[in-house]
């Protein structure tokens, strides 16, 4: 790497994580220099977008960076993330560093142990500098809470950054982080990635095991995963996060190599089924499909065969089954906080709705929803007999006003729940399939949009390979950084 490329703070904080890792290990830059540059960038930008929260003491962080430099001086590296500053999503437990879940009820909670994902990232050498902002309890794809306030979209400070990994996405887009962790239940890695012009990947269910967890059998809709400004960074972080853990019995045991996904992949004649708005079922803000089709055109120019395709399964059935699963799982997360009745007034209305509406659910209803989910999965297997990937918009609206809790309507159609406007992301989640949001362009107002690429069961590598190939022909979109 040319040393002139790493001469300034601004340059350091725009480099991808893999380039920073190489520069550190080649001793072109020190871990202290990178930490100082990162903290300076945070001081410049974070007061504007409010993405990083619970930032640790500067002197302590610089001491930890010095320790990383001392290890390298002795020829010891902890791994590819050696010395890389990282802020962890504020839903994941971090030992000794408060984890609020965006809830005033958790304002001062400090975990006694790291979550498994954090343990793996630290073992790879990262330095945890703080947390990234989330919606309360991670609910709703709009990052605001009463503890830290809202995270603003770097491309338009009047707009939402999305969520629930909104803080991570905004921190990446503005160069405060080089790569970031997140999690995804209902598009929480994909929606903010789309709105912040970065890559966000929901891995196959079980690829990234989660611990600690109160339930390891049924709660299989959410998963942790990676975000990045480049696919290579995202793949490296996924490799670090992945791997079987016996405490998560449904985690994927088969080894998989993602740390580089570029070799031996040919895009010619790869078949992509474009599901669009599901033949008018999904309401879309004007311009969303147009921008997504710019991404599809790039895929076509790469030799992929893009074909408009009908889902072929009643989306109403999927939504109804989804509601049952989501209410049951979210209610179980909220219930412990309601053991103290006075806590109710300190929990946001949307979380209470999830909890309260689940109280009448029966076991028979849940099993019926599970049967629908199983049928839907089998149906998608049939679709994959005639295509290699499925494609959908990553969001049904462009980033909306940050003062708005959630869109009440899309293109004249009323939303009957606080999350109905995010319906386009449930299909990959419900089927447990790997899915990445790739940046595909901007509307006339300068707001980004992303395209979901959904892969076959456990084909995380194939999804990464296609995204990497796409990245090479989408540089003009990726180069459009926020003007902060």
Low-confidence stretches: 1-5
Overall tally of structural domains:
1
Number of strands: 15
Strand content: 5-15%
The tally of helices reads 15
Radius of gyration: 21 Å
Query: What is the element string, with H for helices and E for strands?
Result: HHHEHEHEEEHEHEEHEHEHHHEEEHEEHH
CATH superfamily: Amidase signature (AS) domain
Task: State the helical fraction.
Answer: 25-40%
CATH class: Alpha Beta
Overall mean pLDDT stands at: 96
Shape annotation: globular
SS-based structural class?
A: alpha+beta
Profile the largest sheet.
Answer: 8 strands, mixed
Summary of the model, kept short:
This protein has one domain (14-478): Amidase signature (AS) enzymes (Alpha-Beta Complex), CATH 3.90.1300. The strands form four sheets. It has an eight-stranded mixed sheet with strand order 6-8-7-14-15-11-9-10, with helices on both faces. With 484 residues, the chain is of the alpha+beta class.
